[in-house]
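Reviewer 2 asked us to include a model.

Predict the structure of this chain.
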Amino acid sequence: LMTAYLVFDALKAKKIDLKQTLPVSERAWKMPGSRMFIDPKMQVPVEDLIKGMIVQSGNDACVALAEAIAGSEESFAQMMNREAKRLGMNSSNFTNSTGLPDPQLYTTARDLATLAAALIRDFPEEYKKYYSMKEFRYNNITQPNRNRLLYIDPSVDGVKTGHTEAAGYCLISSALRDKRRLLS
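Predicted model (structure tokens):
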């Protein structure tokens, strides 16, 4: 979520453009876990990387975007921590763009709710466009959004799932019912 927040901020500041293509580093290509299967021999459009990051939970897409915005994933993590403090996320520390386990990476449900609410508030068009997508096809591979609530409740419009051995299954969900937004 924080990676997406900073990507949307970079788009707004015109540091990157949706149609711009980005290189794929060896590091991004070799990311473990969920991936969108980007190829280091190709340039990938920013918009495809955004969809891969959000819909497919692509760790490879997160790293490619982080490197494009900050030069390195380590520098991007510093940006993430500065933004977390600005948003009032006082119980979080980021060490990477993916959320993959690291002894120094931590957050709380409250901080993630703060972040999700800020993402929806600060980037409503981007949120509406990407977070309710039910699938994304890239590199001849179609992957469904892992947020199954999108399929069973028409008022659900996001947000994000996650899974690691350390944290187990995680979900931040949001629904818009009439004019009332519910976030859990």
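The mean pLDDT is 97. The chain is about 40% helix and 20% strand. We have added this to the supplementary material.
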